[in-house]
Amino acid sequence: MDTPLWLWFAVIAFIVVMLAIDLVAHRRAHVIGVKEAAAWSAVWIALGVGFGVIVWVVWGADFGQQYFAGYLIEKSLAVDNVFVWAIIFAHFAVPPQFQHRVLFLGVLGALVFRGIFIAGGALLIQNFSWVLYIFAAFLLYTGFRMIRQRDEHLNPDQSRVLGAFRRVVPMSDTFHGQRLLVRKGGLIMATPLLAVLVLVETTDVVFAVDSIPAIFAVTDEVFLVFTANAFAILGLRAMYFLLADLVHRFVYLKIGLALVLMWVGVKMLLKIDVYYIPTPLSLAVIATILAVSVVASLRATRGQERQSLPTPAEPPFHIATPDEDAQLEPLLRRARSRERSGTPA
């Protein structure tokens, strides 16, 4: 697959432009409703599918099928990520109007980290082909573990990363709008929103460890691995606001995701020395597993309405009052100096 350097720059530039549009559209903190989330989800899915169609037309059906297989894997695994985010936001009682900013920055960080992981994975495969055995074994183990632990949920209080963050970084117990850092009494402190962002980024890194080897099982093309990841991740924020209140209904989805990981693990093992499973067959198996798990979940829980995850009876943080916001000092001392001297910024 011939992908000139200018094409990489063009795709990255397009991603940056779309992120900027999304940021401008949500520059003011507000609660994102189901209709708005559905509209944005449709936009992101259309972009992802549209790019796949371009790949199909320009580079042929085989590469197009590889892209769609990778996109479907990443999109489906991202749903589990969405459910973990819902648990994190509920645990810390993050106000709905502030959640989009955290997710925007989280997705931005995810794109960077996954780009690094993809480059590292491609380099390992290119120089040490035996690493595919490790990837395949890891996918099989992860799938088996997901089935065994399907009823277990993340407990944010047990996060070592979050614990280390709290010990090292001074932190306020108050949400100050969408600010991540504030200065009070001459001390710069992290707001709870920054702590939540750290936890969101950490969970995405953990999910990337599963998803990156999985997509390498269906395509060796680094360009397809990156673009399938990028277009799947770009729609995560909208997907969260669309599905967060439906977590309780996808009771069999984790089993479906586990079977997908195990399937691509088997595919990778066979691909090394035994037999290459055709991409159309692999795509059909993945789509069937996901469709069955979703339909079975919705049938088993039919009649249940949307419901938010329970939040603590006594939320660990509260939203700042106007008086508390007024006590904040300029974050940068230069800004304070300008204010004192009357010099415009």
Low-pLDDT sequence parts: 335-339, 341-345
Portion in helices = 55-70%
End-to-end Cα distance, whole Å, is 50 Å
Radius of gyration: 22 Å
Number of domains: 1
Strand portion, in percent?
A: under 5%
Number of helices: 13
How are the strands of the biggest sheet laid out side by side?
1-4
Largest sheet entry: 2 strands, parallel
Structural class, by secondary structure, is mainly alpha
Mean pLDDT, to the nearest integer, reads: 84
The global form is globular
- Count of beta strands: 4
SSE order, one letter for each helix or strand: HHHHHHEEEHHHHHEHH
Question: Would you write up a description of this structure?
Answer:
The protein starts with a helix and ends with a helix. Strand 2 and strand 3 form a beta hairpin. It is globular and about 65 Å long. The strands form 2 sheets. A two-stranded parallel sheet has the order 1-4. It contains 13 helices and 4 strands. It has one domain. The chain is mainly alpha-helical. It is found in: Membrane. It comes from Dietzia lutea. It is a multi-pass membrane protein.
